[in-house]
Specification:
single chain; 208 residues; mainly beta; Immunoglobulin-like; OB fold (Dihydrolipoamide Acetyltransferase, E2P); five-stranded mixed β-sheet; 5% helix; globular
């Protein structure tokens, strides 16, 4: 996988003023599909991959950094969330951004199997302090093939700023297109058992 270095001061400033960073792509070894919600820890910091498998990790103290990549599944056959599946070391100097891509093997690690489904979704979206969750109608999402998934709450990310700006704090009845990834531990304090990446909001009305 790739390992590159560059300087991007605007990006560094956006990561809480960190002096260095590591960014890259996390894919599944056997399918080459993006892994959403995978844990990434190193250099005194931690983060998670987004719905497209991308991550950016601020580095507290530049130098030789050991980076751990964990599985996104909540249930790991008795193991904890974020079981380390891959480790990399990278040398990084102040002001640099290192590019580290990785492929992790999820076979046999998640129960039920981790997956990513692109579809249209209807349900309730609740947003507030440290909460940003989507609840499908009846707590169940059924795809076009008739496969059902119990979704207690999916942590929501928006691909477009204009869609995010539609919502203030509160509850909304929504219909949108996007990708549902999981199961796993997503968002603040792992409060989402799935990750919902919204591509387009179709309808949004305040819940009664």
């Amino acid at each position: 996988m790739n390992e590159e270095h560059e300087v991007n001061e605007d990006l560094l400033d956006s990561i809480f003023g960190e002096s260095a960073a590591v960014s890259g792509l996390d894919i599944e070894l056997n399918t080459n599909k993006a892994v959403a919600g995978a844990s990434v820890f190193g250099g005194g910091r931690g983060t998670y991959t987004d719905g497209y498998g991308r991550y950016t990790l601020g580095v507290k103290e530049p130098g030789l950094i050991s980076i751990s990549f964990g599985a996104p599944s909540r249930e790991m056959h008795g193991m904890i969330v974020g079981e380390v599946l891959e480790q990399r070391e990278v040398e990084i100097a102040t002001g640099q951004i290192a590019r580290v891509d990785v492929a992790i093997d999820l076979c046999g690690t998640s129960d039920p199997p981790y997956e990513r489904v692109v579809d249209e979704f209807t349900g309730e979206f609740k947003i507030g302090h440290e909460r940003c969750l989507f609840h499908p109608e009846g707590g169940v999402f059924e795809d076009a093939k008739g496969l059902k998934r119990n979704v207690a709450g999916a942590w929501v990310e928006f691909s477009r700023k204009e869609d995010r700006s539609l919502f203030g704090w509160g509850s909304y009845k929504v219909r949108w297109r996007g990708a549902l990834a999981g199961p796993g531990g997503f968002g603040h304090m792992f409060c989402g058992d799935y990750l919902m990446v919204v591509e387009q909001v179709l309808t949004a009305d305040p819940a009664q």
